[in-house]
């Protein structure tokens, strides 16, 4: 069976990186003031960070409709028999609905895997789907294995800029003011339980305590360095990221940790100075 895998720029990949892997790519749109960009094509993470540091409040939206429809028409012409899509969490984007509509119009069988998060976990699921498809695994079995991964995954992040969360409507002005004054750090999460939405898990004093709390949550979630992928992410918060890595290495001897930048779709909501971790159980049949 000829299977195609589709994902979007929520992975943090550029279009060139996705194409090199053999995965079809849809760019989210990023708007900064009067400027509009295609994420992963004509704006980079560093360029977005520069705008954030200037006080801009970028917004993101779904990939252009024409690109989505054109992709599925092309896949149909290439005689693809089934599409597996791993879009950005439906809790923070309607990209999944757009993909489903395009698949119906093209009359292409489609399986959608909601990662209930973004960035590295989303990318891991898309790449695992491709590897399993290349090994001849049927779509229904790929879906079962990847949903098992999703069931055992979590994204935890602690923002430094509460004012940015206030501007985005995720914290009231009073809560942001009190939080800044008392040095309170909200620990946020995205996972299946939150339906892929950014939710407050805890509130702690100081960044150091927030980072320690993230390591504790990973322990309580049953994180196993042999069975899971772990990534530490940041938006120009290297000191915090290195501290997080040290905490994880102490808690889980022998752990292998990936490093990544916070992608635009998350950074646009949380601002700079974010430290995050993502962990996901490895897919069955993927070493």
From TrEMBL:
Keywords: Lipid-binding. The keyword Ribonucleoprotein does not apply. The keyword Nucleotide-binding does not apply. PROSITE patterns: DEGV. One of its GO terms (molecular function) is lipid binding. PANTHER family: DEGV DOMAIN-CONTAINING PROTEIN DR_1986-RELATED, FATTY ACID-BINDING PROTEIN TM_1468. This is DegV family protein. It comes from Candidatus Merdibacter merdavium. The lineage of its organism: Bacteria, Bacillati, Bacillota, Erysipelotrichia, Erysipelotrichales.
């Amino acid at each position: 069976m000829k299977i195609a895998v589709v994902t979007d720029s929520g992975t943090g990949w550029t279009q060139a990186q996705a194409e090199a892997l053999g995965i079809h790519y849809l760019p989210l749109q990023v708007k900064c003031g009067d400027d509009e960009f295609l994420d992963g094509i004509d704006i980079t993470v560093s360029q977005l960070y520069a705008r954030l540091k200037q006080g801009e409040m970028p917004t993101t939206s779904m990939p252009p409709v024409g690109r989505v429809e054109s992709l599925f028409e092309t896949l149909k012409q290439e005689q693809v028999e089934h599409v597996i899509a791993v879009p950005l969490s439906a809790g923070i984007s309607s990209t999944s609905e757009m993909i489903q509509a395009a698949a119906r119009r093209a009359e292409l069988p489609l399986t959608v895997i909601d990662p209930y998060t973004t960035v590295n976990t989303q990318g891991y699921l898309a790449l695992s789907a491709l590897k399993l498809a290349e090994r001849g695994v049927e779509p229904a079995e790929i879906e079962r294995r990847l949903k098992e991964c999703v069931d055992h995954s979590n994204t935890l992040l602690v923002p430094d800029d509460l004012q940015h969360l206030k501007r985005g409507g995720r914290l009231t002005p009073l809560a942001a003011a009190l939080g800044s004054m008392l040095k309170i750090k909200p620990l946020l999460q995205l996972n299946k339980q939150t339906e892929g939405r950014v939710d407050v898990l805890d509130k702690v004093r100081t960044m150091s305590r927030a980072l320690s709390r993230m390591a504790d949550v990973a322990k309580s979630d049953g994180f196993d360095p042999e069975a899971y992928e772990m990534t530490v992410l940041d938006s120009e918060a290297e000191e915090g990221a290195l501290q997080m890595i040290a905490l994880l290495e102490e808690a889980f001897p022998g752990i292998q940790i990936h490093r990544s930048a916070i992608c635009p779709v998350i950074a646009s909501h949380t601002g700079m100075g974010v430290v995050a971790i993502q962990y996901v159980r490895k897919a069955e049949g993927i070493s």
